[in-house]
Amino acid sequence: MKKNTVMESHTTPTPVRCDQMNVTLYTREGCHLCDDANALLCAHGLSPRKVDIDENEQLRNKFDTCVPVVEIDGKIRFRGKVDPILLKRLLIAESNA
């Protein structure tokens, strides 16, 4: 099985088992920040499950003004924007756990 990797720098890959992480991206149609978040997550080898908050009243009430929201392994990690540096740190920390 192929391992996904996260780039610690532009030249040194750091192996991270991204395929075992449960990632949910709460999004909505027409959200450019959501598109950016999805692209960043995918660039780091993650395969987020996308959930449109407008299809569920409870999710819309919970996340209406703060999409994108990224949940990793049951914990909300990002709201509004995914910080690429913090994402790298999180993935590296998870790989060392």
TrEMBL record:
<dbReference type="Pfam" id="PF05768">
    <property type="entry name" value="Glrx-like"/>
</dbReference>
<dbReference type="InterPro" id="IPR036249">
    <property type="entry name" value="Thioredoxin-like_sf"/>
</dbReference>
<protein>
    <submittedName>
        <fullName>Glutaredoxin 3</fullName>
    </submittedName>
</protein>
<dbReference type="InterPro" id="IPR008554">
    <property type="entry name" value="Glutaredoxin-like"/>
</dbReference>
